[in-house]
Each structure stands twice: as C-alpha cells, then as structure tokens.
Amino acid sequence: MSEKKECVAMLLAGGQGSRLYTLTENTAKPAVPFGGKYRIIDFPLSNCINSGIDTVGVLTQYQPLELNEYIGNGQPWDLDRNVGGVMVLPPYQGYNGADWYKGTANAIYQNLNFIDRYNPEYVLVLSGDHIYKMNYDDMLDFHKKKEADCTIAVLNVPLEEACRFGIMNADGDGKIFEFEEKPKHPKSTKASMGIYIFNYKKLRQYLIEDENNPTSSNDFGKNIIPTMLDRGERLFAYPFKGYWKDVGTIESLWEANMDLLGKEPKFNIHDKEHRIYFRTPARTAEYIGDNATVSNSMVTEGCEVYGTVINSVLFSGVYVAPGAVVKDSVIMSDTVIEKDAKVEYCIVDREVKISQGAHLGQPKDEKAGITVIGRGLYIPAGRIIPGGLMINADKLAKMNQTQEG
Amino acid sequence: MAVTAAGIIFSNLHDNNIPELTRVRTMASVPFGCRYRFIDFALSNMVNSGITNVNVITHNNYHSLMDHVGSGKDWDLARRSGGLRILPPFISPASKDSKLFSTRLEALCSISDLIDSMKEELIVMSDCDSICNINLQEMIAKHVASGADITFAVKKTVLTAEKAHSEAIVKSDEEGYITEIIDQPEDFKGEQDVVINISVINKDTLSSIVHEARSKNYSNMYTDIINKVSSSKKFRIYRYDGFYADVTSMTDYYECNMSILEKCNRDALFGIKSRPVLTKVRNSAPAKYINGSKVVNSMIADGCVIEGTVENSMLFRGVIVGKGTVIKNCILFQDVHTGENVFLNCVIADKNVNITDNVMLSGHRTVPFYIEKGKVIKDR
Predict the structure, then answer these.
(1) Which of B34, B289, B296 comes nearest A295 by C-beta?
(2) Which stretches of A213-288 are assigned E, i.e. beta strand?
C-alpha cells in the first residue's frame, strides 16, 4: 500500500480560547460542545472526510485531555485508517530540546516529519474554531487551476466588520496582491477564513526559513503569508459562499447555536448531503411530558422536558422539571433544571444542577448580556444570578459566602 | 467474572408473532422504543455483563439485522478475539433434508460444531425479543454457586388465557429447583413464573443435550429434555423482577411500545446507569421544534423536524411532521414523512412511509393501523 497522499490536512487545535472564559477553563476550544450533540472540531473533521481527505494531523497544546479522548481513533469520522487517518500531534521533546508550539507556523514546522511520511503535493491548514460546511476538494481544484502556490479561502464580510479580520486585496482573477491584518481602513471585504492550501514543497521551504528567523513570531497571518507575497509567489483568494462563523466569543457561540433553529435556519445542520459526524453514546429518545411546551428549539436524545423550552438548544440528557422555564439559552449535556427554576439568555455548561426556584440570567432585551455557568456547578435553591456574569467555581463560592453571610 | 461465558442469540424464532413487521426483517431487527431494535436488549444485556463472544443465529430475512449490527462496534463487539458473529443458516450439500430449523433446539443442533469448539465454561442463551434489562452477571454467579446445569430466568406474571398460550410456565420447589416446565399451557391459574427465554447453561451440558437431540431427533428443549430429568435437581430458576415484555401480536407490539411513555417503565428499562441499552449510532442532528409545534407525552428521536402536533406518540429518527398535521397515539418508524394537515390516530407506519397533505387515517388501540415500508399515501 502506498503511503503517498495527495493532500494532508493540519488542524490547528491548540488555542486556549480565553474569550470563552469558563467554558475553556478545563478544555481546549475545539472540544467545546456545540449544537446539541457536536463539538466545534466536528465541523473541520467532517468537512475533511466529506471532501475525501483522509489524513488529518490535529495539533493540540492547551488542555488536550478531553480533545484527545474525543478524537480517539477517529472512528466516528471514518478516520481510522491503516494508512493515514486522524493523528493527534502534541508538542514533543526532541534531540535538540523541547518547545511548546510558538505560533501557528511553528506548530506545523515541528510536525514536518509527520507530513513528510505521506509525501503530499498539497497541505491544507485548518483551524479548529469555526462552524461551517465546506468542500475542500473544490478549493483544491481551484488551487490547481490557478497554479497557485497558496490559496486562501475568503468570505465577503460587511465593510464595517472588515477591520476585525485579515483582509485579502485581490485582482479580478483572485490573485492576491496585498494582505492587511485587521486594517483600520479596509480596501476590500474579502476576509481570510483561516483556511489555507499550500504546495507542500513551497510551504516546507518557507517554514524552515521562518524558523531560522529569530525575529519572526512564527505565525501564518503575520509572517508566512506576507513573506510569500513579498517574494512574488502566486497567492489566490478562494471565494467561499455560505455559512461560516468564528465561535471564539460567548456572543458568537450563542449566536451560532441559535442559527440552527427555525424552519429555514441560517445554518442547516439537518442537511443529509453534507453530514456532520460526532462521537456520542446511544441514549434513549427524548421524552416531552404532558404539560411541556417546546417552541422553536432543538432537543437532543436523553432529554426529559416537563417544563417550558423556548428558542433554546438542549444537549443530550438535560432535565427540565415541571414549572421550569428555559428561554434563549444553550444548555449543555446532563444539566438538571429543577422545578420553577428560570434560565434566560444563558449558556450553561455540562452537568450543572440548577435547584428549585433559582433564576439565572436576564431577558435578552434587557441587554445585560449572556450569563455563563461553568461545568458541574451546583446552584442553590432560589439563587438569583443577574445577566452578563461569568460564573465558575470560585465566583460561585464567593457568591455563596456573601449571600449566606 | 471468575468464569467465562459466551452468548447465543436466536434472531428469528418468533417471526410469526408479528408477520407484518417481519415480512422485511427478522424479529431481532424489529424497531422498538424510538431508536432501538429488539436485539439491542439481548446484546446490551450480554455486553453489560462482560460477555464479549456473542453468536447470533439467523434463519431468513437477515439483511436488516446485518445492517443494524454491522461489525458490532456500537456494542463494543468488534474484537480481535470473540466479538460478534452472525451465523446464517447452514445447509451442507451432504444433508438430504434442506429444511431449516424451527425451534431453539433445532437451531442449536445446526451449530453443534461451533458449540463444541467454544472455550467458555458457560453459555448464555437469549431470544432476540426478550425486552428487558437483566443483570446477567448476578444470574451467572448464582448459577455457578448452585452447581446447576441450567438456570432459566423467570418473571412472576399474571397471565391472560390468550397470552398464556404462547408462554412457558415453570413449576419449581422452594429451593428454586425446577420440577416441571409447561410449554404453551392450555389451562393455568393466575400469577405464574413465566420463562423470559434467557438461560445460563454449562457448555458441556449444552454440548451433550445437542448431541442427544441430534441422535434422537428431539426438537423441544422443555418437553424432550428438561421434563424427562427434572427430578434430579439440575435445573434452577432465577427470578427477574425488572421490566419485561415479549411481543406476541401486533396489538401487543403497540401496547408494549406505548408502555415506554410511562416514566416507571422507561426508567426500569433504560434508566439503569451501569447497564445502558446500546444501539447503532447514527448521524442525526438533534430534533428540531419549529414555531407553532405542540408535543405532549411523546418520545421523539434525533433527526425529527416537528411543525405540527404530536400527542402520546413515538417518533423514530428522521420523522417529519408537517404544518397543521396532528399525530395521535402513533408509532412512526425512521424517516416517515407527513405533509401538511395530515391526521393520524393509532397508526404504525413502517420505515420511509410518506403520507401526503390532507390524508386522514385512524386505527384503534386494539387494532392499530399498519402501513407497510416505503408506501406513499396520497389524498385522492
């Protein structure tokens, strides 16, 4: 069996995701639950297998335990292969010492030996914090057709938001002549989606050169792409049309969950043509009780709903007691919401117990912001937690002290 | 587990109980409880008790079964050694008579070589339609401690005359030794110990029973074997008191599904943390409830999209309930689609049934209306 692969994907999954606060306290951002039964990383992984890419290196660094366990042998994504498949690549100690991944480019550099094993023509660089469905194979065709050295997927964003992205200025043919990182006065609205296809020979050469430059911050956006542009390499912008969301903040994570709802959702996760795969144990179908109300929501297997659920996403095994109300919220697996408790405009992490009569968050239109409740917390009966707070174990302990004393 | 055990599951024995549903599948692969197939219970019972060498004897129509169990991965039975093995019917060219087995004992005779070659000390045998969540580990431990040859699991049940005809009743002494098994009794009185078609048997005992049965042409384990030697204190009962159902008719099938809507039954069958019921994992998104939907006392599997009203019903994966549609007291299998303003009451719709706009259909609790697989029903 030949070990050669045409294209190898490298998935950058080492980020901490500090803007997700307590949700990423003990887990890497790509392992954060999403959309009822998925993790963020399911999207790039499923895109890979749906695009015929069967060799994926996942570069981990921050809190990798849960992510490693989740990926496992890659079987849910059909990425358990004799040659290739999915491989978790943590930083390691080598002959010349050890180093953490210093930047996105350095992470790939440290794993050149992994890529070399498959002797690929192309390398696809992905990040593990975006929600989207994309056929990378179409992008690869574009890359070949343009005889590009590097192709960068771009999305048209509203001009007023362009200043938050890396902006590609390209000519009519898509050839990039300028790259601006978060420009104050953007010249175009083509935002980089953090998805790159490189000719591997070129990439290898630039990574080695970049590593030998002590002033470089070893980052694709800051160093590799600008250097390639300066040298006159052929860089192309691949226009992507469709849903794409960076879920790096609490607000965007909440929005992306809500984008799944409705008869014609912004992001159709029920699409059978482009399935998103996930690892999950089998659970009993959800039960909706006699006096329950479920409206404009998603409910996952293992749930029991006796109360009211409106405009919300319930992950598996969530229990909503009679009289409890869940509104405009994302409730992750195995959280229990007791009688008469109210949860409004919140993201509640897994295995939280919300006792009788507790009241979390404030109505969305009061604009107090999203309330976040960390994993496994016990919210005492009658406790009121106002809108916009990030509650982890420490904060809750302090809160308990003041409210009791 | 101190002793080793292998499993044997019979997948076809009761196909005739619900001929509508087994026309296209084995009894083992009859859908149940929104996302399960009958065999999931037997497989899960074994796997949850540490049995990792499981053999499924099939007879006919077993494509759906093969499709469901696959490599056995979802039950952790995709193993290098042991794991899941499907045994299709085996007729050698040398055999004069190509008739397939019709009883458990005949089925076992057809795999006698396999039984002889098993290295495990015990065999756990289960019918595919014994819907229960039983602690086999405890049953095995009691069997070993008692020194018995065979232990039959029984459940105390109040029988109706109709139902009794398809059951086997066990008479035992105060120590739990079986004195008699009455198969398909004509007359009976009230509460009885009924076999739930799960038994633990010493492998050597099974081997010798099978060889004796082959040479003497026996076909019924109870009347031909057990009752002849039941005075010798070799056969015991193990009392199981959890949820148990076996399906003997279409009405029975309907009631049995509906009983899962009651919390006590759901918890007894599915709620035991250490013994989850495992099944094939599919890639369905969570169920989606559109504005205007109303769902009451129902179980809904993943992948459903609900815009209408659902009451006292069980929806399998991928069911679509259109706008203005009312589903009452129904069991809708995987990927059943209903259009707008449909009304269904007491309907069992098999896989991929498509019911278009404005159709009204009603059965009765005692005579549920069954729609066969893949049928399209149009108004006019």
Answers:
(1) B289
(2) 235-239, 244-246, 286-288
Q: What is the mean pLDDT of residues B236-253?
A: 92
Tell me, yes or no, if the pTM score tops 0.80: yes
Look at chain B and report how many structural domains it folds into: 2
B258: closest CA of chain A, how far (Å) = 12
pLDDT over threshold 50, residue A1: no
- In chain A, which residues touch B (CB < 8 A)? 35-37, 75-76, 260-263, 269-270, 275-278, 280-301, 313-315
Q: Read off the amino acid at residue A308.
A: T
Report the pLDDT value the prediction gives residue A347, as an integer from 0 to 100: 98
Tokens 């290295």 belong to: B119
Between CA B16 and CA B9 the distance in angstroms is 17
What ipTM is given for this predicted complex? 0.91
Indicate whether B352 belongs to any domain: yes
DSSP state at residue A380: P
Within a domain: B275: no
The residue range of the domain holding B112 is: 5-270
Nearest residue to B317 via CA among A192, A387, A286: A286
Tell me which residue of A59, A58, A62, A108 sits closest to A79, measured CA to CA. A58
Three-state secondary structure call for residue A302: coil
Judgement on whether residues B254 and B311 belong to the same structural domain of the protein: no
Highest mean pLDDT among A93-102, A282-291, B154-163: A282-291
Token pair listed for B300: 């809904």
Mean pLDDT within B214-224: 81
Instruction: List the CATH number of the domain containing B181.
Output: 3.90.550.10
Q: Looking at beta carbons, which residues of chain A come within 8 Å of B300?
A: 285-286, 288, 299
Interchain proximity B280–A282, CB inside 8 Å: yes
Query: Is residue B300 less than 8 Å (CB to CB) from chain A?
Result: yes
CA distance A17 to chain B (A): 25
pLDDT tens profile A225-238: 999 999 999 999 99
- B277: which chain A residues are within 8 Å (Cβ-Cβ)? 282, 284
